[in-house]
Amino acid sequence: MELKKIIEEKSQESWEIYLPSISIDCVVFGFHDATLKVLVLKMKDKNLWGLPGGYVNKLENLSEAASRILKKRTGAENIYLNQFRAFGDLDRSEGFFEEYADTVWNKQRFVSIGFYALVDYSKVNLIIDNFSDACEWKSIEELPEFMMDHQTIFNTALITLRKQLNDKPIGYNLLPEKFTMPELQKLYEIILGKKLNRGNFYRKMLRYDILFKLDESRKGGAHKAPDLYQFDLEKYEVALKEGLNNGW
């Protein structure tokens, strides 16, 4: 069934169960193969991509709505979520729904609450719903053309992630349980958008005293196998409350 028909058929039900004028858009980050990725959807019958999103049930908190929306897309529970901004420009979605009747739920004016989510890439099972033809991970450096204002939402989420690198558990939620120091450095470099000095990065991370060095290394490759580390979550949380000192 074409997208327009699906939306029109769902409209009446949406008026009955959702909170008017409020929507949610999520920027879901994952880290894989030394690349920071974001979850994107290709809309049914459209050559446009968007961020995972949806609406808020009338008896539901905003964070509960965001968790529900992402569980339907990823199959994952207990996802780390952070609300970062509201987006409410007057005509933010007008063009997308210009062929729809004014009474259709989705064509109403919505203020969207933006959440960014940090997930373990290996634990996500992507799900395609009736509104989309594809649900995929894309490198943040190779994003497709976004619909509505989703490019702005993504850009704002990435800037927020960069600003919060020293006071949110970003590394803990994006990296696998065991990781190498080069992997941690690469994650920081991608988020910050710049190269970091290897020696300075290693010394700074070890000085924070938030890592366990494990008695094992990453096997494979032509070079010496790098040591594996884990976050000491208790010390990490204490350090984040105080703020990880020194800029990057």
General description of the model:
- The protein is of the alpha+beta class and 248 residues long.
- The N and C termini lie far apart (50 Å).
- It contains seven helices and ten strands.
- The relative contact order is 0.16.
- The chain is elongated, with a radius of gyration of 20 Å.
Could you give a quick summary of the protein structure above?
The protein is an alpha+beta fold and 248 residues long. The chain contains seven helices and ten strands.
Q: Tell me the span between the first and last alpha carbons.
A: 50 Å
Seen as an oligomer or otherwise, the chain set is single chain
Reported for the largest beta sheet, the result is: 7 strands, mixed
pLDDT < 50 runs, ≥5 residues: none
On the 0 to 100 scale, the average pLDDT is: 90
- Our Rg estimate from Cα atoms comes to 20 Å
Helix/sheet category: alpha+beta
Indicate the topology.
Layout lengths: L2 H15 E15 L2 E9 L5 E2 L2 E5 L4 H13 L5 E8 L23 E8 L13 E8 L10 H14 L6 H5 L4 E2 H12 L5 H11 L2 E7 L9 E5 L1 H10 L6
Parallel strand pairs: 1-6
Antiparallel strand pairs: 1-2, 1-4, 2-3, 2-7, 5-6, 8-10, 9-10
Task: Provide keyphrases for this structure.
248 residues, alpha+beta, three-stranded antiparallel beta sheet, 7 helices, 32% helix, elongated
